[in-house]
Recover the amino acids of this structure.
């Protein structure tokens, strides 16, 4: 929650409003939350095991978008990832 608030304040200060960003990690986080809610209602015990994994995905998503706001002067809403310029075994394809 704190990372979201930092990202929101940073976006408002730097860009004047919260720019819409549609990264791959954002879509992955939204999909995992959707399936988590489906699993959590009938099976709360497995959901408790999956919850930390989902929060890790959310944490990485907020960090990626915050980094995007800090490093760019203009944020394109169709930016897929900040990791697209990596070289080596972590190269984005």
């Amino acid at each position: 929650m704190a990372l979201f608030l930092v990202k929101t304040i940073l976006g408002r200060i730097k860009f004047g409003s919260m720019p819409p960003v549609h990264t791959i990690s954002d879509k992955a986080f939204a999909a995992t939350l959707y399936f988590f809610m489906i699993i959590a209602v009938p099976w709360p015990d497995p959901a408790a095991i999956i919850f930390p994994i989902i929060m890790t995905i959310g944490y990485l998503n907020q960090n990626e978008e915050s980094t995007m706001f800090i490093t760019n002067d203009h944020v394109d809403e169709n930016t897929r990832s900040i990791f697209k310029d990596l070289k080596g075994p972590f190269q984005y394809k």
Remarks:
- Residues 2-90 form one domain.
